[in-house]
Amino acid sequence: MTNTRSMMLTGASLAALFATGLATSAQAQSPASVGGAGEIVVTAQRRAETVQDVAISINAFSGKQIAELGVKTAADLGALAPGVSVNEVQGGLNPVISIRGLSLNDTFGNNNPTVGVYIDDVIQPFTPMLAGQIFDVQRVEVLKGPQGTLYGRNTTGGAVNFISAPPTFEPEGYARASYARFDRAEIEGAIGGGLSDSLAGRFSFKTTQQRGGWQTNAVTGETIGDVNETSFRGQLLWQPTDDFDATLKLGYTKSKRDVQLREHVGYYARGGEGFCAAALAGYRDESTCRDFFGYSDDTPERRTVEASEAYGHEMDSRNYNAQLTMNYDLGAATLTSVTGYVDFRRVLGDDSDGSALIQLDSRFTDDVTSFTQELRATSNGDGPARYVAGLYFSHDRIAGQALQALDDTFFHTRADTSYVQKTDSIAGFGEAGYKVTPQLELVAGLRFTHERKAYTYDAIDLNPYGDSTLPTPVAGIARTLKEDNLSGKLGINFEASRDLLLYASASKGFKSGGFKAAIAFSEAETDPFEGETVYAYEAGLKSTLLDGNMTLNLAAYYNDWKDFQAMVTEIRNGVNVIVLSNAGDARIYGIEGEVQYRPSSALTLRASANLLDSKITKFNNAAGGEDFTGNQLANAPKFTFTSQARWELPIQSDSFGVYVLGDASYKSNTYFSLAERGLSSQDGYWLVNGRVGLHGQDDGWELAAFAKNIFNKLYVSSAYDNWGGIFPSQNFLGDPATYGVEVSFRF
Known about the structure:
Elements: E1 6-7, H1 11-28, E2 41-42, E3 48-50, E4 58-62, H2 63-68, E5 84-89, E6 94-99, E7 115-119, E8 122-123, E9 137-144, E10 158-164, E11 172-180, E12 184-194, E13 199-210, E14 215-217, E15 223-224, E16 227-241, E17 244-258, E18 263-265, E19 268-269, H3 277-281, E20 289-290, E21 304-305, E22 314-329, E23 333-351, E24 361-379, E25 385-405, E26 414-435, E27 440-461, E28 477-497, E29 500-511, E30 532-545, E31 550-572, E32 575-600, E33 603-619, E34 639-648, E35 656-667, E36 670-671, E37 681-682, E38 685-696, E39 701-708, E40 716-720, E41 729-733, E42 738-746
Parallel strand pairs: 7-10, 14-21
Antiparallel strand pairs: 1-3, 2-3, 4-9, 5-6, 7-8, 9-10, 11-12, 11-42, 12-13, 13-16, 14-15, 16-17, 17-22, 18-41, 19-20, 22-23, 23-24, 24-25, 25-26, 26-27, 27-28, 28-29, 29-30, 30-31, 31-32, 32-33, 33-34, 34-35, 35-38, 36-37, 38-39, 39-42, 40-41
């Protein structure tokens, strides 16, 4: 790539770019707003480049696109980016993100996601932290494949970066309010500007209030879906010289909301022995199927379920976060320091069996503190060589507790499981590129990671009724896991012309091991599992056509996944348990494409697709367990498709305009467990959304009407597969049709 196509970030240019130009580019040049196709500026490779200049697979969405497409949480990205699928456990309160089939099939809080989620360069290390609302976002970047040579925390599947709108020295702000079905009201806004010649600030907030929802508990008659969530963010940018800037960010979120109830899925024959015919055929039929204890949910409407509530159905959480980012331009390179701290706590009540009986009712508590420090140097200048080099340290502590009631089972007891896990991670990473010719660049990256996890575990049978038959859980466990890993990347980039970039790379990604957090009945169950490794190979092209009005990007990839971590079902001490372990090896290959076309200044079209094939090539099935060799991976649909069309209507007016926006996505059949069982899967389905907006010609105001899931598709967004055990399987359902109105002002 020529140097004119890549803008190096110095300390001064970074502040100026983020304060003015980048925000303008992300909105004015967004293909879904009013500019040329593909011209969103990103910093995925630690320097400012357009999407078409980044020699990796990346999808980027501006803040304006995010608002118009109705993206509220990280889970919504699954309908926008090809090859991205989100397992919306508990209605999205524990989202598990999958990129190109790589994910973690586990929802306990103590295990790190396969796909790293960053907020302003600070990792969110555990899945319970990924459910917060999105607001005042400048852009979102979705990166595919291992990112360890450029990012502080190691990931195998990819990275999702949420970039907040930064402070600016020019006064600016906005206010947005919406009201939608199920009495859902949202208000958000931001205001900022210069406080002095060297100091700028920005304050933003969002509150979501909902009374009731689309789900009903038939046992109590209560409507489920209340939301009371409020977030604040304050930022200060200090730029005393052209060579130095520092941004301090403080944030707080308080959330209290209902937890989606589980849909009961029985698989034993009702009135007979063995498995029921419907379950064997791969579909749910409570009229002929029951669970181990003889229970069936006979409510005819699937969005009405029967649920017990020994510990209620509410989630109560709070999140404090602080971040200090400093940039110092030394001339030849820019030094960057990113310091982050997060204090997160959540208590969640859940009917974990999905029945009116108290078979397995739970109250989960997660208490997290996370400190991260990243130092990196990024080269400046127009020479043939470029580099990024960094050091990273993090300390995470998570304390978890699970109170579980088994009153209406032959165990007839309640149990208390708790653990504390501390993780210290130290890493050195770097990536360098050298242009052998003006068109040909060679890239190499390297990373060394040292990680230590200390784990303590206790469990007790509370035996409140005095007649418990639960096997004695183990207690007083202390374990330590230490791992060192060397990973890296080799790549080649060739700029065939100014409008055609070809690239190929081979990289190794690593994610460390961990520990089981669920109740254990033998010490062997608390032994650590080891880290997983992926060898990722990719070749692609990025092209700009039709005088810049079209972009066409293609990529082919192959992932060789070793010792992948996944939840498997095993029978231990006569009890059916789900454990997280190194399940085996898998391979994934596929092809991905994205096209954006702007036939006129009024019409923008975008379509993207991902076709993949996954297969478990080796499965470490334990005695009494099933062998899943040859099955496809969980949360890895073979085909995903997304599309958007935005049309500015030909209305002649100097004061207002009208646009129509439609987006549709398709996901093929998805299995939610490695067993590849039809009963815990979702057939292929479409989701269609729409929006109509009336806006000022200067975009100073807008009045819009919107609809999500227009055709009211009923689909399973996540499922637990407990086949053959004493507890039933369960489903979580996606949101039904919603619609509403929105008004916004920008100044």
